[in-house]
Design goal:
By secondary structure, the protein is an alpha/beta fold. It has helices spanning 3-11, 17-20, 23-37, 54-58, 63-73, 102-105, 110-125, 129-147, and strands at 43-49, 84-90, 95-100, 163-164. It is 50% helix and 13% strand. It has a 4-stranded mixed beta sheet with strand order 3-2-1-4, with helices on both faces.
């Protein structure tokens, strides 16, 4: 583990997330998730962390491993159609990870998920956190609507509110 990474993550305050994602942006993202989920049977979760928690840092956890951990903790894998998608933003490591449940992941290749992540990261480098997230949500919505179109009853299985950790 690099000492610089450890200190950066331990010293950076969690409220820093609100500089990149102010309350107004979080509300807009929440509304976009709700609108998205009306068009398909998938479930979206959006999680932002400034830095990793201490246990993850001590294990030298990668942003990908943290995203998978949160995918399980938040029950994104536990949707009726196995179509949950977690978008994880780790600000200090400047990383975006998407973890998709087996139902949608079997239909959409890794190149798609990776491309969405890289476009978000490019937008974030330009300071376009809200618009970069909304563009990614739009792309993911199109994929979910193609493979899991809304039909009949469409329960909202996971919270739409972005999670700041």
């Amino acid at each position: 583990m690099r000492a610089g990474r450890l200190f950066r993550h331990m010293l950076w305050p969690d409220w820093w997330v609100l500089r990149a994602f102010p309350v107004s942006a979080l509300r807009t993202i929440e509304q976009a998730i709700a609108e998205s989920e009306r068009t398909h049977q998938g479930e979206l979760r959006f999680v932002v962390e400034a830095g990793l928690p201490l246990p993850g840092l001590l294990r030298d956890q990668s942003p990908r491993a943290r995203a998978i951990e949160l995918f399980a903790q938040l029950g994104v894998w536990d949707t009726e159609h196995n179509s949950g998608v977690l978008i994880y933003v780790q600000l200090l490591d400047r990383s975006v990870e998407i973890v998709a449940d087996r139902g949608i992941d079997a239909r959409v290749d890794d190149a798609f998920w990776s491309a969405v992540c890289r476009r978000m990261e490019a937008a974030f480098r330009e300071g376009r956190f809200e618009s970069g997230t909304l563009l990614a949500l739009n792309e993911i919505t199109q994929a979910l609507a193609m493979y899991f179109p809304a039909s009949g009853e469409n329960p909202d299985e996971l919270p739409n509110t972005p999670l700041i950790r």
